[in-house]
Design goal:
With 116 residues, this protein is mainly beta. The chain has no helices and eleven strands. The strands form two sheets. Strands 2, 4, 5, 6, 9, 10 and 11 form a seven-stranded mixed sheet that branches. A hairpin with a 4-residue loop joins strand 7 and strand 8.
């Protein structure tokens, strides 16, 4: 079983920045893709950003140019640097890790609230 623990969420004013972290532990075989998703109240869970083991990144249209995803493979950790935050970025942010053996894991989420 894989455990994912997110941290770094909180309350920030519009235009501010936050950095989220997610540490994976437990039965880790070989991590392929690490990603961040978010879910606002009453909405579906959407991809924010992903990063593959080779460093390829992909971002949701709403966050391109403002958010940056990175990872530290030695620490099994993925980060999400969020700049120029907007009220519409308010959501619960979830970490996702996909392993090469097909195991897909989710964190419990961290709340980001952006006040306007």
């Amino acid at each position: 079983q894989v455990q994912l623990v997110e941290s770094g969420g909180g309350l920030v004013q519009a235009g501010g920045s936050l950095k989220l972290s997610c540490v994976a532990s437990g039965s880790i075989f070989s991590i392929n893709t690490m990603a961040w998703y978010r879910q606002a109240p009453g909405k579906q869970r959407d991809l924010v950003a992903l990063i593959t083991s080779s460093g390829f990144t992909n971002y949701g249209d709403a966050v391109k140019g403002r958010f940056t995803i990175s990872r530290d493979n030695a620490k099994n950790t993925v980060y999400l640097q969020m700049n120029s935050l907007k009220s519409e970025d308010t959501a619960v942010y979830y970490c996702n890790v996909a392993q090469r053996n097909g195991v897909d894991s989710w964190g419990k989420g961290t709340l980001v609230t952006v006040s306007s």
